[in-house]
Helix-turn-helix domain-containing protein
Amino acid sequence: MMAHAVASWHEWTHIDTYRHMSSNITVQKVCEFCGQKFTAKTLFTRYCSKRCNSRHYKQLAKEEKAKLLGAQLTSTVTSPTETLASTAQEYFEVNEAAQLMRISTRTLFRLIEKKKLKKKKLLSRTVILKDDIKSFFAKQ
Ligand SMILES: [Zn+2]
């Protein structure tokens, strides 16, 4: 029992000595935000000051947000012809075709009426063939 207590006291002294030594380490580093050289107290310090730390953090968050927004924007600006080129679908329901062409179903029916766009009957359903949408856009 006594021996154990003595051993743990030694352990604590050891840890304390180690801690004391490591706190005296100085590392020359370059601030990741402002690029200035500074003396770091630990190997993991990345900034010269707390201000640079929070500023860099904010900047990264902003960039991340902009990246996300950019990705959203590019996904919504895909043109109908690009969508047609990338889809394996050969024909579309009326509402699908309208969505793809970025028009309302009413406009789509008007195009069919004016014979600007061909429609096909698939059993009782009206469908628009991919090729017909393609040739419609080709004529525009
Ligand atoms: Zn800095």
Q: What stands out?
A: Residues 1-13 have pLDDT under 50 and may be disordered. The helical segments are 2-23, 50-76, 80-86, 94-101, 105-113, 130-139. The CA atoms of residues 16 and 107 lie 79 Å apart.
